[in-house]
Design brief:
single chain, 117 residues, mainly beta, OB fold (Dihydrolipoamide Acetyltransferase, E2P)
Length: 117
C-alpha cells in the first residue's frame, strides 16, 4: 500500500491550466516534528514535501484556494521521479500525488470552519 497523510503549512504554490479544462496545482507543504535531544533540549525537525493536486473530471476543487501560509491536510500517494539535471547529473525526487486536500483552520483558531473537497 502506498499512502501518505500530511498536515502542514503551504510554502510556494503555482497553478498551471491546460486547454482541456484541467489544472494542476503544484505546491509545497512543510511539516514539523517535535522531539527532545539527548540533553533534554527541545528540537523541531521540519520536512518539506512537493505536492501535485489536479482539478479536472475527478479532481480537487480547492486548488484555487491553496496559497502560501494556508494550513492543509493532504492525503495521497508518493511517486518517485528520476531525471537528468542540466549539468547531466542523474537525480531522484519524490512528490505527493494528492487524492484529497482539506483546508484546515489554524491551530489556534477553532472557530474557522473546515472546508473539505
Amino acid at each position: 500500500m502506498n499512502k501518505i497523510l500530511l498536515r502542514g503549512v503551504v510554502g510556494r504554490a503555482e497553478i498551471n491550466t491546460f486547454g482541456n479544462n484541467n489544472s494542476v496545482c503544484n505546491f509545497s507543504v512543510v511539516t514539523d516534528y517535535s522531539s527532545v535531544d539527548r540533553d533534554g533540549n527541545p528540537c523541531i525537525e521540519s520536512t518539506w514535501f512537493n505536492v501535485s493536486a489536479w482539478n479536472g473530471k475527478d479532481g480537487i476543487a480547492c486548488i484555487y484556494d491553496i496559497q502560501k501560509g494556508v494550513w492543509v491536510e493532504v492525503s495521497g500517494r508518493l511517486r518517485t521521479r528520476r531525471y537528468t539535471s542540466q549539468t547531466g547529473e542523474e537525480r531522484t525526487t519524490m512528490e505527493v500525488l494528492a487524492r484529497k486536500v482539506t483546508l484546515v483552520p489554524r491551530e489556534d483558531d477553532c472557530l474557522q470552519p473546515q472546508r473539505d473537497w
